[in-house]
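User: Predict the complex with fructose -6-phosphate.
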Amino acid sequence: MCGIVGYVGTRDAGDVLVKGLKRLEYRGYDSAGVAILNGEMSVQKGKGKVINLEKSLAANEIKGHIGIGHTRWATHGEPNDVNSHPHLSESGRIAVVHNGIIENYNSLKRKLTENGRTFHSQTDTEIIAQLIEEIYTGSDKITFEQAIQLTLKQIVGTYGLAIVNLDTPDKIYIARKGSPLLLGIGENEMFIASDASPIVEYTNKVVYLDDGEMAVVDANSYEVKTIDDVALTKEVHELAISLDAIEKAGYPHFMLKEIFEQPRSIADCLRGRINEKNGTIQLGGIAEVMDDLVNAKRIVIAACGTSWHSGLVGEYLFEHLAKTPVEVEYASEFRYRDPLIGEGDVMLVISQSGETADTLAALREAKARGAMVLGICNVVGSTISRETDAGVFTHAGPEIGVASTKAFTAQVVVLTMMALKLGIEKGHINKKQAKEYIRELAAIPDKVDQILKGCDDVTQDMAKLFTYAPNFLYLGRSYNFPVALEGALKLKEISYIHAEGYPAAEMKHGPIALIDEMMPVVVIAATDHTNDKMVSNIEEVKARKGRIISIMNSENSEVKDLSEFSISIPSTKDCFSPLLTVIPLQLLSYYIAVNRGCNVDQPRNLAKSVTVE
Ligand code: F6R
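Assistant: Here is the predicted structure with fructose -6-phosphate placed in the model:
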């Protein structure tokens, strides 16, 4: 969702804030703004991209060494100049940037209005600035910090907050409940951000704030405490990501860079974890809970979006390889049912960002009901990775493109390793089979590389032909049914073409009515044990003049002959096939979106990290 940055030190605050906001722009990009303290409160903000903000800051020559900034993904109030952050108190002396939702903002606003305060925006954030000021100026005995604490106690909802006040011109106040915030520690300077990307070029020392905590930060020191004023000593972590990892490296878009990074990101995910020679798998993050996993009655996987699709692949993997029953839940639905989960169950949450509000809530719900909670996350230090009992990192590197690509394949790789490990531990996979699986898994990065080199041109040709198709259907069976869902999601989110994914056999129960000569149908016919059935489904589409694009195993001439376009992928075991079949689908969506002139890395209405429910 929204991105927050803050800086205090000796550099030009405007420069640091704008650079940081550009790095955070993938979190929200409908408006951007900064407040810089320089003897007065200089605020520059407005609808649109950070680049507009950069221009207006330069034109107005706003300088200073301390400030806060924000890039917005609108929740309350349309994206316009007035609703952009920062928001000011009545006197204009206090500025606030906020990520999250204040649920009781209406009643608070009513009270503050009755007290004579005037509101300018439709946002929930403005009440925070106003309420802090109301409390702060209401009594001589209350410090600014106490006013913030008292305000936070009245607020119901979630927040990541950064606040500055002209009365304390060398300090930034931050607080967190439900929206991530971290503090970067430099030499005579401090950085604040929603994630590590704006900080990494200045320092690798960071402190993660937890829910219910706040910090008072100046250029040389920081003090972390609970919002009940209990002082805390926080661990200082070292960031492992590099600056290269968050830049485009010559690619026109982050998404394309991330698609092409997959041979490496998959290899990074496997590194040190599989041993081909011995036929063993080592997953340090879950070693201590392996017995619980072996004895688990079932695994409940909860996730959202693309991560939910990888969870569906996980269901096939765990049931086939480890014979453990699995249910896959939309995290948002799980939490609002009365879920039957408890001791003896394992909940496995999957999240690239590790901050998705619905997934986090499902995790907490399962934990409260006594289940053991494991995680698969990409972002080290994220809330989900810290709240799970144990887990495995995907090591895919930062994913900046809003549409998830390399995170998906890395999640599937982790699920594959977990399922294999569990199958071995439970005695369902013997030594010889383990070696075979692991040998094949180790070959996946090269096969992905082969696909990327072999199908880039043909996907561009296909994209030209189908750029203006109004609808797409994606069909798959078994392991490739979730890939059909993922292919459809990729297309709709970045090209705004309506697309549906279905289990191929389900087509005849309704969607077949949509098929005519205008309908491109992407069939993923690369799962050996269901291929004959898939051929019948392709025939059904052909009989209604649908246009077949197939992703198939090489040498499948039957499918090839039935297809207008076909992309062949190297053969592999059925259970590893999603790692290969998804690659051409990512490329196809990418090139169609580019042809349509869409903003691939920042699709409309989306944000990378969905920290509101
Ligand atoms: C799709 C996409 C989203 C995310 C979803 C969950 O390309 O990126 O559907 O997969 O918002 O996000 P994480 O994995 O961060 O929990």
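The first strand starts at residue 3 and ends at 8.
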